[in-house]
Here is the input.
Amino acid sequence: MAPPPPRRSTAKVLGITGGVVGALVVVLAGVAVFVDGAEGGFPEAKYRMSVPDELVGGTYRLSQDLSSTAGKQIVEENRSRANVRDPKAVVAQYTGQGDQEGGTLVVSGIYGRYKDPDRARDYLMEGATKGQGATVAVPAHDVTPSGSKVTVSCQVLTSEQGGIRSNVPMCAWGDDNTAAAVGVITPETAVQDPESVDLSAVARTTLLVRKEMREPIG
Here is the structure.
């Protein structure tokens, strides 16, 4: 009997998708928490987040919108917090197209009115590390892509799901009205040395996601 074929890296990506979603749903719980203890008033609501059918110029296509299930549950759990107003959540999973076929992009965000948004990124990164089977491979640090005025925080987690271990590179942004973590997994980054993952590329993708999901109110 011939030995079974080795698992492809794409299979690894598919195997850890559920773990990525789980890790980023945990992030949502931390987003509302980050405002605790902050002083001052609430900013005006100028922006909200949407879940478009495609992201990154059509490179990723929506495969699952969890905003009305996982997102709603997290919002209800945090609605009564004293320092958050009008929270709404978006949780979505996208599948890579074309050159990114076999890849997965997951967005977990919340929008509303927050105090002290500068702390959002730290709590987003910390929240992701609490996902089941997740460990920190590359600690969170700030990245400002060339030509951008927006700084994001990025890290690499490793996630083990069903005996399959994979890297989970992610970045997060935070502002007065929106905060989100973006996990980007490709067949290449899933299996390479975590220290070799190009987090600058993930940061650029995160800013494109921010541009396409964040929209003015009114």
About this structure: Residues 9-33 form the longest helix (25 residues). The radius of gyration is 17 Å.
